[in-house]
Amino acid sequence: MKNIISKVEDLKNIGIKFDEENVKSCLVHYELKGKIREVLSLAEELGLDITKDKTKSSVSVVVSNFSDIDGCRKKMLNQVYQEQTPLIIATLKTTNIFKEILFTLGEAVDRTKYYK
User: Fold this and answer.
1) pLDDT per residue as tens, the chain (116 positions)
2) Taking Cα atoms as reference points, which of 109, 110, 100, 115 lies closest to residue 40?
3) Of 10, 30, 55, 91, which is most buried, counting CB atoms within 10 Å of its CB?
4) Do residues 98 and 70 make contact, with C-beta atoms less than 8 angstroms apart?
5) How many Cα atoms sit within 13 Å of 102 on the Cβ side?
6) Residue 42 and residue 63 in contact, taking contact as beta carbons nearer than 8 Å
7) pTM of the entire structure?
8) What is the DSSP string of 41-89?
9) Which residues lie closer than 8 Å to 93 by C-beta, 6 or more apart?
10) How far apart are CA 8 and CA 24, in angstroms?
11) Which sign does the torsion angle of CA 44, 47, 51, 55 carry?
12) What is the dihedral of CA 84, 90, 91, 95, to 10 degrees?
């Protein structure tokens, strides 16, 4: 945590302004990425192919319900994976969590960063 605080201070020193909203937004995004990495790791432990949309959509479901899952997330991931249908996969592919999974896996690039 001290490392994060020192980096924020360094950024403030070079003139970057932080307000409560963008700091909260960054922290929420950072937490989401952590959950995605954790669930992707569980998928690999289960031997699921993380390049498949079925696996990514299952990861998306577990991540979006992360704090509501009591017990073993690995078991829940496997259960969700077994119950996927093409319609559910297509629906989940439109979510922001699914897109963030693509960014995490390096399968997508945020082009808006280059055109501002």
Assistant:
1) 567 777 777 777 777 777 767 777 777 888 899 999 999 999 999 999 999 999 999 999 999 999 999 889 999 999 999 999 999 999 999 999 999 999 999 887 665 555 55
2) 100
3) 55
4) no
5) 15
6) no
7) 0.77
8) HHHHHTT--TTSHHHHHHHHHHHHTGGG--S-HHHHHHHHHHT--HHHH
9) 53, 56, 57
10) 13
11) negative
12) 110
In 3D space, the residue among 104, 115, 82 whose CA is nearest the CA of residue 38 turns out to be: 104
Cβ proximity of 50 and 107 under 8 Å: no
- Residues 51, 116 contacting (CB under 8 angstroms): no
Residue showing tokens 């997508």: 108
